[in-house]
Specification:
9% strand; globular; 4 strands; alpha+beta; 4 helices
């Protein structure tokens, strides 16, 4: 469905696989249900966009709104953690196969330049053709820092 929406010109598409905010038994839930579905869906979408020649003009971004604690809690889960999180980016000129940023040895805090949510927003908008001049005219994310390392 997402690929079809891209093909007809829908500029922003959210695919929600649901159920990621689970606070117990993540090992069974993720390993048996969520991650196999995500792996199949993401790899199929990226391959399909590439096969059709539209991955270079389509940004594919997988992320949540927060990170997870670096330690497992007493319910066999990880709670919300605002200090570190990750995202996966593909297409739209993103250099594949790289890791940007690093955390400390315990996964608690960044040890390299932190990327703020405003920077993610700025970079997403730029991928959509809304550059710094257009953002200034719209007064949208004036202080965000573009993630240059991606490209």
């Amino acid at each position: 469905m997402a690929r079809r929406l891209v093909e007809v010109g829908v500029p922003f598409i959210e695919v929600n696989l649901g159920g990621w905010d689970n606070h117990s038994n993540i090992f069974g839930t993720l390993a048996d249900q969520r991650l196999p579905n995500l792996d199949r869906a993401m790899s199929a979408l990226i391959a399909d966009l590439a096969d059709r020649g539209i991955l270079d003009t389509t940004a594919v971004i997988w992320m949540g709104e927060f990170g997870r604690t670096p330690r497992i809690n007493n319910r066999a889960a990880r709670d919300h953690w605002q200090h570190n999180y990750f995202s996966i980016w593909a297409g739209a000129g993103v250099k594949p196969g790289q890791v940007i940023g690093a955390s400390d040895g315990k996964g608690e805090r960044p040890v390299t330049r932190g990327i703020e949510p405003t920077g993610v927003g700025v970079t997403m908008l730029d991928c959509m053709g809304i550059d710094s001049i257009a953002r200034a005219e719209l007064n949208v994310l004036p202080d965000g820092e573009f993630i240059h390392e991606l490209f």
